[in-house]
Design a protein that fits this description.
By secondary structure, this protein is an alpha+beta fold. The protein has three domains: 6-76, Tetratricopeptide repeat domain (Serine Threonine Protein Phosphatase 5, Tetratricopeptide repeat, Alpha Horseshoe); 92-251, Glutaredoxin (3-Layer(aba) Sandwich), CATH 3.40.30.160; 253-389, no CATH class. The longest helix is centred in the C-terminal third of the chain and has 23 residues, at 366-388. Helices cover 55% and strands 12% of the residues. It binds zinc ion (ZN). Zinc ion binds at residues 240, 244, 264, 267.
């Protein structure tokens, strides 16, 4: 929390701190201009002001009750004449449809017999018991989890596509959106292990998901330590793996040979930024995921060592993941976002084996960045992680 309302920039010009700028802009908007309030919500996302963001969105719908964008960003859905929290709206719909003898499968409510026949055909296709299949614009999700969990997950992953584009730009590799990607969501560890091994990805201790680039399938399972991962943990895993999938299918970042910190730090940047059904990079709102950061980001391992690791195996693995995540957070959001555009420049020119020299040329000397990074972790990241846990 900043105490002063005014901060001096490097040039000595007085600029408003984000909280103060929010108050000043909010006072001008008053009870009109819903578009202005929506823009102010964008400003809040950029500056990680999450409570103010909700306030700005609430003000938007107070002025314009039918504003669909603001409702969606508040995680609300239309239900008859009302707008309800998305989970509630879907539960209500499911109850009504099931009372009519319908079951959801693919992309529609179908007569139960029809849905059961499709489910049986899919079970033969994938080789394990499904609860539901869900088709969305970018995904086909085969899920052994219940409908409500799967719908929320689908909403989140679809939202992630937009979040990716907002942060990294519209950079489809081929100029067109990729074909629907398949997502497998398991509910028990033996099936997850069996399928993982069969696709050449025997799962290691602690792993709860992986992305298979060759067949474009994203697998979300359970951790090796627990029989079932918590719903929050599974969502965090799914969003993390989806980032790898989007990198592979959409972007300038060449996945093959890209530095591990760059891929894993960015995947957690999204995976830990879950708010309801939205991916808001930088939010640190997913308590299960941020546990890793909480435990690992005070490690004394220098950031240049993390950047050197071709893979994150070995005893220091949790610390490498945590530091890479904190590092990416710093590069995008630290020091009022001062490094974000240079970091993006580095990413956009990122060849498969982007070196530390490439990084230093684009962003700055690592030894110069390390002290403000450590300060950012202590003063900004750690307190906000503690708050969410
Ligand atoms: Zn990963």
């Amino acid at each position: 929390m900043r105490l002063g309302l005014l901060v001096a920039t490097a040039l000595g010009i007085l600029a408003l701190a984000p909280e103060a700028e929010y108050e000043a802009r909010a006072a001008k908007l008053g009870n009109k201009n819903p578009k202005g309030w929506l823009e102010l919500a964008n400003f809040c996302e950029e500056h990680l002001l999450w409570d103010k963001r909700s306030e700005a969105l609430r003000r938007t719908v107070a002025i314009e009750p039918g504003n669909a964008e603001a409702h969606a960003r508040l995680d609300e859905m239309r239900s008859g004449k009302d707008w309800l929290p998305a989970d509630e709206a879907e539960a209500k719909e499911a109850e009504e449809m099931q009372a009519k003898g319908l079951a959801f499968y693919g992309s529609a409510w179908l007569p139960q017999k029809e849905a059961a026949a499709l489910k049986e055909a899919d079970r033969k296709l994938v080789g394990w018991a499904l609860e539901v299949r869900l088709d969305t614009p970018h995904l086909r999700i085969y899920s052994a989890r219940p409908l409500d969990f799967t719908r929320r997950l689908a909403g989140l992953l679809e939202n992630e596509v937009g979040a990716y584009e907002r942060l990294y730009g519209r950079i489809w590799k081929s100029g067109t959106a990729p074909k629907a990607m398949q997502v497998f969501v398991f509910a028990d560890r033996p099936t997850f292990e069996k399928i993982a091994t069969a696709t050449g990805h025997p799962i290691s201790q602690g792993a709860s998901g992986f992305y298979e680039g060759g067949c474009r399938i994203l697998f979300v399972g359970v951790t090796a330590d627990k029989e079932l991962g918590s719903p929050a943990e599974l969502r965090c895993t799914a969003v993390h793996e989806m980032l790898h999938a989007l990198d592979h299918q959409m972007t300038h970042v060449n996945v093959v040979g890209a530095p591990c910190w760059l891929m894993e730090g960015r995947a957690n940047h999204f995976g830990f930024g879950i708010l309801g059904r939205q991916v808001l990079p930088g939010a640190l709102n997913e308590p299960d995921g941020t546990g890793l950061l909480h435990d690992g980001c005070t490690s004394p391992i220098p950031i240049s060592e993390v950047m050197d690791q071709a893979n994150f195996k070995g005893a220091n693995q949790p610390a490498y993941y945590a530091l890479a995540t904190a590092w990416v957070h710093f590069l995008f959001h630290g020091e009022d976002g001062r490094h974000a555009s240079a970091f993006r420049t580095y990413l956009s020119g990122c060849p498969g084996k982007a070196s530390k020299a490439d990084f230093e040329k684009a962003v700055g000397r690592i030894s110069d960045l390390e002290p403000p990074f450590r300060e950012y972790v202590q003063k900004t990241l750690r307190p906000s992680i503690r708050k969410t846990r």
